[in-house]
Amino acid sequence: MSQHVHELVARLRTTGGDYDDVEVKSAAGGLPQSLASTLSALANHPGGGTIILGLDEATGFRPVQLSDPQALKQGLAHKARSFSPPVQLTISDAEVDGAPVIVARVHECDPSAKPCRITASGTAYMRGYDGDFPLSDLEEQAFLPARKPPLFDRQPVTGATREDLDGDLVTAFLRSVRERDPHGLGRFLDDAELLRRAGVTLPDSTPTVAGLLALGVHPQEWFPRFVIQASAEPLPTDPVGSRARNQTTITGAIPRMLEEVLRWARRTFDISVVSAPDGTVRDQPAYPYIAFREIIANALIHRDLDHWSAGMAVEVRLRRDRLIVSNPGGLYGITVDRLGRDAVTSARNARLVAICQHARAPETGARVIEALATGIPIVANALAEAELPPAHYIDAAIRFTVVLRRQAVPVIRPGDDLNETELRVYDALAAGPRSVADLKQELNLSAPNIRKALRELRSRGLVEQLGGQGRSTTYRRLSE
Description:
30% helix
């Protein structure tokens, strides 16, 4: 356990805590109120997660003194019973930098009992890449269907006909099938029969959900939110008040959306001019286009197609330091730790994947997907060649997010570089609000030095003042 904790803390200190399955609390003043949402979120999280009590994130995950570790462990166990179903914990002791900490392993809730919710309020939480979020009524529906292979992509599209399929895309699909699978699906010479056996249409020629999404003229006539919503953060040179840059909604069948989102990327990604060792000069985008394309293709074909997600789009958000791609629906049949490591393919929408293997981009003739478990390795290799950090994959069970970062930037925390006096004052406030007189007596420091330290702590957002202006003045650490 100690080695595992040391590895976790090393990762946290390197990345600044950017992990969706680990939560750190100082707990110097007792169990924090925010622990309830974290326990629910981790219990709903694929694979569960870990909570470490006794480290202060604001000061670089430095150990803090726990006044009563046994009471904290008992409090954790008691709080775990305030959920429906109860949260299953494994609580143990460990050390970080020679100081004791408490490690609680939060086990994933049984899928048939999800979502795990706070009994008193009825609220359930999910884990996002930047915090815990309450589940909406619509999102909770994602946990309700029986755990069996989803078949939503095989359903007929009521009101659609064979004429709602794109002739160019269908022609390219038929050609690919007959060239690549001549003795299997391609042996059917009648086009209508081949489309039916491929799952593009039903016997009455009605397109299926998969057929329309992959080969439709305009699938958004029936699925208005099966789109890509892309936007970029405004630049400093943009007009004051600008909320987004190059904001667009991309529609069409999957092959056409892929081509259009790549055009958006070429217009939007920053470009650097780099020199190769052989003296040639080339343009290098902020993120490799091939990696971006693989991530978008995965988001489109693996997104959830159930009714609860019908109003959700694939979202692309370009910030100054990162690129975020998110789609409704978590991983299916595989876990994050196996992505790119095992040659395993797993498809939420098996029929859609099978069709897209033979779908072709109308302008370039490029394949949409390979379905050979090569996508994630392609992303990893492209990022490595561009000297960018590895992709960060976040599976929140009902939402899957990929985060690409421009570079590994040192994490700056509000408690970095505090001097010895400031750290002593900050640690003393962990037990509760204190006045200057209280701190002077406890720490044997002069009042001017204490006030100076408090001013610095307040300026960094670590401490707040209570009272003042004729009332008794005390100071306390901001809650976790």
